[in-house]
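Think of the structure tokens as a kind of shorthand, similar to the way a musician reads notation: each symbol stands for something richer, in this case the local conformation of the backbone. In the example below we present two proteins back to back. Begin with the first one, reading the sequence and then the tokens, and try to describe in your own words what changes along the chain.
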Amino acid sequence: MITFINSYNGIEGDTAVAIGKFDGLHIGHEQILKTLEECKKEGLKTVILSFDPSPDVVFWRAEDTELLSRSEMEEHLEKYEIDYHVILSFTPELARMSCEEFLEEILIKSLHGKTVVAGEDVSFGYKGRGDAEFLKQMEKNNIIKSRIIRKKTVDGIPVSSTQIREYIKSGQIEKATEFLGYRYSFTGIIEEGKHLGRTYGIPTVNFFPEKKKVLPPNGVYFSRARIKGNTYYAMTNIGVRPSVENEPHSGEKKGVNLESYLFGNPGELYGETCTVTLYHYHRPERKFDSLDLLVAQLKEDKKACMDYFIL
């Protein structure tokens, strides 16, 4: 079982360390993690090293969002034989460390590193000078071993968290799935809504996504929902429900909401944890001039969803 820690305390024995952002744990990361697992055959403990916030957020003002929440990352990493995930706070002091200092003080002394596993685009230390060539030179000098993994591509496109974010934000859910190696999802606690869906024959469950998750375009998605160990085919609207939502009452949450119609009538589910997994972006969210027009469109959406899943 993997241990998550925010310091070097508790790391015992010689280790193999994988450095990276690991945002999304996509199919490119899978190659790095499987290589890290192979190091266990050499008697090494395995360590993933990442940073919070990401250096990209600090230096390049990238948006501070995530493809996987902390709990989702923990679940995905349980598939691998990883001993530790060390998440270091990316402080100004850490940012100023040279690559030589980072290697000596953090990788070797603190993490007891004997081998570094990283992608060919690895960078660490001041101005990112700790790159693949630097690690290869350190191995030639018998300071630390390194295993550099070539970047994975799909149809000639390099697999990266940045590319996956673009696919999600543009509604290309199938392409995001191909690059991630699994389907993108959201998890939240089902909240009691205004029961408007019941009035027009399409009752729904709804929750607000975790704050830092990357959001796709507002619209209707074909999906599956997992609740209390049961899985349902679903039709999900991600957005602000412009046709039915007026100004929220005092104390109500605002912002993007996930509202799902579940095929199979599962009953009352308020307070339960729900995971909605996206399969296909069907259409953008839009405002209808009347409730009758909205209901007619939802019935068309429902039929299209049933056809997609062959229900």
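Once you have a description of the first chain, move to the second and do the same.
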Amino acid sequence: MRYLFLLAFLLIISCASSKEQGPSVDMVAVEATANEALQLAKADSVQIVALWTHLQFLAKRLDLLDSFTTALPLAATSENQLQLALLREEVIFLRKFLEGQDKVPMINPTREQLPQAASYLPTEYEQAQYLFTQKNYKDAAKKFEEFTVKYPQSDWTDDAWYWAGESQMALGNYALAISSFEKVFFYVASIKQADAQFQIGICLLKMGNVEHAKNALRKVQESYPRSTRALQAQSELNKLKR
């Protein structure tokens, strides 16, 4: 859709440049076409912002459904988990698609962009960390999650998801904690992946899902064999053999 807008823009430039070749160009029509293209670009910008908002809403709803599903007996969760996994794949696809829209230049240069956090430690992140150190885990979780919504592409977003998980874990909300830890893996360069995978295993243990917990802990050893978490995972697995 947006490429059509760009083609329209190039057509306008082409028509304007042909003015020197003869008096046949209808400048009124050219101006009308340019105005129409600008209006389309503005509408496109509004739609993308609206889609981002709706996408965040869907992600939150999936988290809530995750918590409900995890509370069910294991025998009743397999189909629900499959459906949720498929929905999460769609959300990830849509998020990547919308992020790619910023790489296509718009006719309207004043298009509102999503806010980006700087590479240094943002104030909002510091506030969330302070709440965590004060053991105000409920507000800390909320602040970390708000940070991820406001700055989805920040250098600190993966850390924010991890500490949101730690906060929920401290509150005993293990399903919500797992949901937060899983989001760390959206960031392929994150240094928190080993920590997140280990904590997923611990949360599953707390919930009584021993076999799933073993698999999660083994994954720490397989995927991050040189990390300190791999040693901790082995320690936890040894405890489960007793």
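Compare your description with these statements about the second chain. Confidence is low (pLDDT under 50) at residues 1-23, 102-114.
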